[in-house]
Amino acid sequence: MEFHQLAYALLLAINLIHGVHSAVFTIKNNCPYNIAPATLTGSGASASTTGFQLASGASNNINIPTPWSGRVWARFECSNDGGRFHCNSGDCGSGQVACNGAGAIPPATLAEFTIGGSNGKDTYDVSLVDGFNLPVSIVPQGGCATSDCPVDINAQCPSQFAVRNGSGATIGCKSACVQFGTPQYCCTGDHNTPSTCPPTDYSRFFKNLCPKAYSYAYDDPSSTFTCNTGANYVITFCP
């Protein structure tokens, strides 16, 4: 039995013994380089980890107590120079591999969840509201719909939204809200309703490439998915 399978079985056994309701997130790295996945809890008890490193081709299981809401993302181009952990893309600014309650610095592709929500349902989505840094997919184990953004948007990012590393390679693509910060694109102020904050050419750029992902704040109908509470989820970066 592979290590991640053994860990998964152990988590399930612990939950059965103690009567704890939880979900297991299996996080896979299909990227051709190392990444550092992270979690941020919005409500509920914290996930079993707030950040870890993951080699190319590896996977790791984390335990999510229910009810829980939060997000998962991945950092890359990371280093530990001078004892301070830092990533060029998706960094949380903690200075450590663990993010310890800090969120991603945009742009970052977010896998968002509410586990054990109302009416015995989980909800989940892939969000590009804060921009894009890595392709990702969410695959529930149990037949529910997949949510994903499998395209490398960095390769097509308009130059004005591109975030580049020291070598000039694009490692992130900002959303219009992150780039301009105005109510028109952030759906705030007098643009805080679906009728006053419709899609824009900028959000359509993301939507055309990743139809199942949130392209801006009011992109709910085609971007939010549900599954019965009790499902486990595989989150794959660079699917």
UniProtKB/TrEMBL annotation:
Keywords, comma-separated and alphabetical: Disulfide bond, Signal
Q: Which stretches are annotated as coiled coil?
A: none
The answer on whether this UniProt entry bears the keyword Disulfide bond reads: yes
Alphabetical list of Pfam families matching this protein: Thaumatin (PF00314)
Q: Which cysteines are joined by disulfide bonds?
A: C31-C238, C78-C87, C92-C99, C144-C227, C149-C210, C157-C173, C177-C186, C187-C197
Q: Where is the signal peptide?
A: 1-22
In which domain of life is the source organism classified?
Eukaryota
Q: Which SMART domains match?
A: THN (SM00205)
- Give TM regions: none
Could you tell me which PROSITE patterns the record lists for this protein? Answer: THAUMATIN_2
Indicate what this protein is called per its UniProt record.
Thaumatin
The organism is Artemisia annua
